[in-house]
Each structure stands twice: as structure tokens, then as C-alpha cells.
Write a structure and sequence with these properties.
Elements lengths: L2 H6 L10 H16 L7 H19 L5 H27 L1
Helix pairs in contact: 2-3, 2-4, 3-4
Length: about 90
Amino acid sequence: MSASTSVATAAIPGRPARPGLALLLGLLGIPGVTLAWDLPLGGYWIGLPLAVAAIVLGAGARGTSPRRAWAAIALGAIEALFTASWLVVALFG
């Protein structure tokens, strides 16, 4: 079994790997968690769902395009942490 065969089977079976879409959602989440705070519940209903979707799709695409997948996962995690920190500041600040 070659290395490319074993890496390709690491993706979630039954789902198409979409590393480009994961990265796009991660990039779209940046303004969602930073600029949308002036909207009612801005980062919670715009940025956080995009961050979660980027993490999920990035995790599913790790076997096909690792760089894009890990970039999407990292962006999504940073956006989720940013949203959580703003929530803590809003509640306890």
C-alpha cells in the first residue's frame, strides 16, 4: 500500500473532501467575528457558524489537501476563540 493510498483513506468516508470550501469559510469568518459585532448578536450568528463549518470541513479534508485543511482548521479555531473571548468580556467585563 503506497503512502498516497493510506492518506486518501484518512478522510471521512461517504463525504466529499472540500478543502477549498473549508478555507473559504474560514476566510469569510474573519469579518464575521470582527466586523459584525455592531450587529445584534453579530459574531454569534455570522462568524461562529462559519468557524465551526470551517473546522468540520477542514477535518474532513485533511487527507486530500493537508495545507488548506489545516489552515481552515486553524482559522476556525482562532475565530471561535476570538468569539469566546468577546463573550467573556461582554458577560464579565
